[in-house]
Amino acid sequence: MRFRDARLTKPAEFDRVFAENQRARTDAYLVMARPNQSGHPRLGLVVGKRILPRAVDRNRVKRCARESFRQRFAELPACDFVVRLLARPAPGKEVQALASALYRAGRRARETWPELATISTTQASHG
Description:
By secondary structure, the chain is of the alpha+beta class. The chain has one domain: 2-Layer Sandwich (Ribosomal Protein S5, domain 2), CATH 3.30.230.10. The chain contains four helices and four strands, in the order αβββαβαα. The protein has a four-stranded mixed sheet, sandwiched between helices. The two termini are 14 Å apart.
């Protein structure tokens, strides 16, 4: 599977996660998760100009977040994750705690919506 397919791209996909989600937080990030029907985890990023005005800084944070997601991809539940930057991360520590926050939010989402989690697991094994 290509990791480009594991991204949230449409506003409706983000809106669905924003509307109902389970959250986990680090010092710099808020991770929101909701089970999906695709059978694999997907990632969306919200990195605002207000917190990081320079594009080079925003892009670095996004690259680091995507890499953290890639490294934990096999362990994550089938959820849509939206990672929102809350504060300027310390240089070099952009995603130190992000991987565990992704897992925590996904676990909470699957506990909250077990019927969606069951559907996505069943579809993943048959589709």
